[in-house]
C-alpha cells in the first residue's frame, strides 16, 4: 500500500525548499554597473587631488636654510607692526586704481 501521507510531506518539503531557494536567489543577484562602481569616482578624485597618490613621497632633498635669512624674515615681520602701511582712501572703493593716503610725519 502507498503511504499518501509520506508522499504529501515529501511534496510539501520539496515545494517549501524550492520556494525558499527561489526567494534567496532573488537576493543574490549580481550588482549592476552602477553598484559595482559606487564610490570609485570619489576615490579617483581624492587620488587626483593628493600630492602623493600612492602614499610614496618622492625623494626630496633635505630643506636647508641658513640662520641669517630666517632672522631677517623675523625682523621684517616685527617691523611691519612698528610702522604699518598707510590705509587707502575709502572714497575710491571700486573706482579705478586705489590711491594711498599721504604718509603722516
Q: What kind of oligomer do you see?
A: single chain
Question: How much beta, percentage-wise?
Answer: under 5%
Radius of gyration: 39 Å
> Major beta sheet, specifics?
none
Shape: elongated
The averaged pLDDT comes out at 76
Q: How many strand elements?
A: 0
Name the structural class.
mainly alpha
Weakly predicted, low-confidence segments: none
Annotation field: number of helices? 4
Briefly summarize what is shown.
This protein has 105 residues and is mainly alpha-helical.
Please outline the helices and strands.
Layout lengths: L3 H24 L5 H4 L3 H10 L17 H16 L23
Describe the structure.
- With 105 residues, the protein is an all-alpha fold.
- The chain contains four helices and no strands.
- The protein has helices at 4-27, 33-36, 40-49, 67-82.
- The longest helix is centred in the first third of the chain and has 24 residues, at 4-27.
- The radius of gyration is 39 Å and the shape is elongated.
List keywords for this structure.
single chain; 105 residues; mainly alpha; 4 helices; 0% strand; elongated
